[in-house]
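ERR on first pass: missing label on line 2. Operator R.T. fixed the label and resubmitted. Corrected input:
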Amino acid sequence: MPELPDVEVFKRYLDATALHKSIQKVEVEDNRVLRDLTVQKLKRRLRGQKIHHSRRHGKYLLANLVEREWLVLHFGMSGRLKYFKAEYSWPQHSRILLTFSNGFHLAYVSQRMLGEVGIFSGDLDDFIEEKELGLDAGEIGWDQFKERFKSRRGSIKSALMNQQIMAGLGNIYTDEVLFQACVHPKTSVPDLDTKQLKSLFEKMNAVLTTAVDCQADPEKMPDSYLLPHRDKGGRCPRSHGELDRIKINSRTTFFCSACQRQP
DNA sequence: CGTGGCTCCTGGCGGC
DNA sequence: TGCCGCCAGGAGCCAC
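pass 2 clean. output:
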């Protein structure tokens, strides 16, 4: 699930629940989510600290611990956060559990463990540089968007999903943006005219804003969106034709061949 | 440089 | 009912 809107919702959730509370206990239920980081180091860096504020960049959420030190959360395909009180209500697939001084817990939940929990030392800009991330999709301006995409040769879907060009869009929201802009996902970037590129930029902003407003919940999204219709029998809300389903870069891609014309 | 395939993982679902 | 293969909203790596 976690693309930019989902992670933004996680950020707001974290901000509303876990700030300014002393971390008393750190439990690692499965150390595979730590990758190269040792359990010992994670505990040493977290215990006794507080999360002062958080930042999101693309699909990453960074929780600030001390000056130039962050707890890094990446959610892979199935990650989320859960703040709760009672011990017996631990969510299934909790991999990391923090216990605060008020007795509440914050769980990093990840069924498939494709995400990562880490510690980063440095400024946010250093992190972005190390991960080679492009500008955040929610903050990029039109001139930068145009600049970054016009030098690309591949398909627009691949480009929009490329975190080095721009960070935040994943498979689902890329399909949504292409659908809203009526652009076929296989269109090669150089074949797009400025008007189409501008439309993609504007629709991207609208989609991201709407998705965050809907708490990234497909059921709350407008019926005119692709999201609520992908997967369940799948009919285009505009043409009412059956949605097409293809693979691009081995990712399932939904689109409407009536609205999004073959390049 | 871009694309497609494979890999890391777990678990739900449809088909037989 | 049970088992199996397929698939899933991420992303790094490698061969072509």
